[in-house]
Write a structure and sequence with these properties.
Helices cover about 55% and strands about 10% of the residues. The protein is α+β, with helices and mostly antiparallel strands. The longest helix is centred in the middle third of the chain and has 31 residues, at about 105-135. The termini are far apart. One of its GO terms (molecular function) is glutathione transferase activity.
């Protein structure tokens, strides 16, 4: 769970579930926020990506794609953060607030999940990976333009809405929060150009699940980006 999760009350412990994760990964943080929002406690295993621990023989058995997070519930193994979040909400959360039970509400969350996996996350990778792994010390102009285009899309999605999913935070907001808060480090959101998106990011950053499960990894990512940029510029 997040750094402050031990302070929360009435957690449900799922001893048969394990999450392999790296806190600086937005995808891992989405799952961690989903867990905290549902007050679920599971076994968590930290994986050092820089040391290649996600490519060990044991991890390759679980996930041949060599990505994180990896989630295991008894014999079920999932390696996509969106699938993990919807599984957890469908299997262990009965309220229907995070993952609406009506087909329309569920479809809206699915639509946002697809936008995150098909647009937002690839743009995060395109901007961040050259800095993390390819000896680059800045976000390239094309990546900045692509991220700004995504911000414009998200601004439009929030028209007439407080939250992406409706009147309260859903998995849409949790998944978007992990990616958008990370993109905001690479390409800061201009509150004058994107006032609805900027206001949404402030609201979601005050949610307990964001505080407990996203802030630590977000700070780690920010430090890592800063350290690499300083080394490569010197």
């Amino acid at each position: 769970m997040g750094t402050s999760a031990s302070k929360r009350l009435s957690q449900t412990g799922l001893k048969h579930c394990t999450l392999w994760k790296a806190d600086r990964s937005p995808a891992c943080r989405a799952v961690m926020m989903a867990l905290d929002s549902m007050n679920l406690s599971i076994t968590e295993v930290d994986i050092n990506i820089d040391k290649g621990e996600h490519r060990t023989p044991e991890m390759l058995v679980l996930n041949p794609l060599q990505t994180l997070p990896v989630f295991k519930d008894r014999e079920l193994v999932l390696s996509d953060s969106h699938a993990i979040c919807t599984y957890l909400a469908g299997r262990y959360c009965d309220s229907g607030r995070l993952l609406p039970k009506d087909p329309g509400g569920r479809s809206l969350v699915d639509q946002h999940m697809h936008y995150n996996s098909g647009t937002l996350y690839p743009r995060f990778r395109a901007a961040a990976y050259p800095i993390l792994y390819e000896n680059c010390n800045f976000v390239m102009p094309q990546q900045i333009a692509d991220i700004e285009c995504a911000y414009s899309d998200l601004e439009s999605m929030l028209l007439g809405r407080t939250w992406f999913g409706g009147s309260w935070p859903t998995l849409s907001d949790i998944v978007f929060a992990s990616t958008i808060s990370t993109l905001n480090i690479l390409v800061p959101i201009d509150k004058n150009r994107y006032p609805r998106l900027s206001s949404w990011l402030f609201r979601v950053s005050e949610e307990l699940f964001f505080v407990t499960a996203n802030r630590k990894g977000l700070s780690e990512f920010s430090r890592r980006i800063g350290e690499l940029s300083q080394v490569q510029q010197s």
